[in-house]
Design goal:
Layout (H helix, E strand, L loop, with lengths): L6 E8 L6 E8 L3 E8 L2 E13 L6 E10 L5 E6 L1
Antiparallel strand pairs: 1-2, 3-4, 4-5, 5-6
Bound molecules: zinc ion.
């Protein structure tokens, strides 16, 4: 891995408990290696992370799983929340 951690990433999340939408900043300090692929500009590496997020409206705690792609090497290509 040649990414610099932590990665900070802002996203809008929806609470499963009260349905309110809020903005959350993830500070991703720990990435789990998932897979890698050979592409035009070299290797593409996929990672995942999980974070427990607390809803600011109702204090409901939920686990969010996200995916990070490193491509080309050293660059965060996409962060997607699942
Ligand atoms: Zn809520």
């Amino acid at each position: 891995m040649s990414l610099e951690l932590p990665i900070s990433h802002q996203d809008n999340l929806k609470c499963k408990n009260c349905n309110s939408t809020f903005n959350h900043t993830f500070i991703i300090g720990n990435l789990e290696y998932e897979s890698n692929d050979e592409r035009g500009m070299g290797e593409e590496i996929q990672y995942s992370f999980t974070e427990e997020v607390t809803c600011p409206s109702c204090n409901h705690k939920g686990e969010v799983i996200g995916e990070v792609w490193e491509y080309p090497v050293g660059t965060v290509n996409l962060i997607q929340l699942t």
